[in-house]
Write a structure and sequence with these properties.
It is a single chain. By secondary structure, the protein is α/β, with parallel strands linked by helices. The strands form 2 sheets. A 4-stranded parallel sheet has the order 2-1-3-7, with helices on both faces. A 3-stranded antiparallel sheet has the order 4-5-6. Strand 1, helix 1 and strand 2 form a beta-alpha-beta unit. Helix 7 packs across helix 8.
């Protein structure tokens, strides 16, 4: 049995979304795990964006590290994943139902977002008999493991740890300092604005998914790549029928084709 941890902190230095405490959170969790929970520091991987001695938590690096972290574990292992940074929501697409019409996502330091569908697929690779604790200290974290049942009793009240006190109290005691919580969200409009500035493209809230594919290529979220591929195929089919001057009706046709194709694909997977 091995205790392992993957700790990720994004401060987004020099950006409009800059935070100041997320890297501190990583070291607080590191100290908690090594001093109180019996973790060997050699079995803890740290990813932060404020020190070049550590691997930068880009979207590509985070997906690769989390996948390796999950799939390399053995029955009996104890895993802890901790992310501290911004969360966001983007419009949901395809057959996967979301009651609020939105997908949750975490924001790596390069804003190559990791959508809840991607996280669910990675975590689903967890071998039987492995204990995983998945912690996301960001906004919209409650739905990050897509459609996983998450029960929070006494909503709005501090969570009480065994022995009394809240998680914040425990972390403060270990670190020897007080902690102050603040909202950690990049709103959709700000995400689009920052991606536009970063890439030089005209990124709008309504084209976030296709823009992610254009900006990050094959390193983009699998969910975004799937949507972009379906949109491109629909555009080609629509263009063949309506010509280059299809206008608004051609665009509407493309969107309807994408939705129909993804819905059909989802139904086929469920039948299998």
């Amino acid at each position: 049995m091995v205790k392992k941890a993957l700790l990720v902190g994004c401060n987004y230095p020099g950006t409009e979304a800059q935070l100041r405490g997320c890297v501190n959170d990583v070291w607080s969790i590191f100290q908690l795990l090594t001093s109180k929970k019996g973790f060997d520091r050699n079995n803890i991987k740290v990813m932060i964006d404020t020190d070049n001695r550590y691997e930068k938590p880009t979207g590509r690096n985070m997906r690769r590290a989390l996948t390796e972290f999950i799939t390399s574990s053995q029955p009996g292992d104890v895993l802890v994943f901790h992310f501290s940074g911004h969360g966001t929501q983007i419009p949901a697409e395809g057959p996967d139902p979301e009651a609020d019409g939105k997908d949750e996502a975490i924001c790596p330091t390069d804003l190559n977002i990791i959508v809840d569908d991607d996280l669910r697929k990675i975590v689903d690779q967890l071998p039987s008999g492995v204990d995983l604790t998945f912690i996301c200290d960001c906004c919209h974290s409650g739905g990050l493991l897509d459609h996983e049942s998450i029960i929070i009793s006494d909503a709005g009240k501090p969570m009480t740890m065994p022995g009394g006190g809240s998680l914040m109290d425990l972390m403060a005691a270990v670190a020897g300092r007080d902690f102050v919580a603040k909202p950690r969200e990049i709103p959709l409009a700000l995400l689009a604005q920052m991606l536009s500035q970063q890439s030089g493209m005209n990124v709008q809230p309504g084209n976030i998914r296709s823009s992610m594919s254009s900006i990050f290529g094959s390193d983009a979220s699998a969910a975004c790549l799937k949507f972009a591929a379906a949109l491109a195929a629909a555009q080609m089919g629509s263009g063949a029928r309506t010509g280059a001057d299809g206008g608004a009706m051609a665009l509407i046709s493309c969107c309807l084709q994408v939705m129909a194709a993804q819905s059909a694909g989802g139904q086929q997977q469920q039948q299998q």
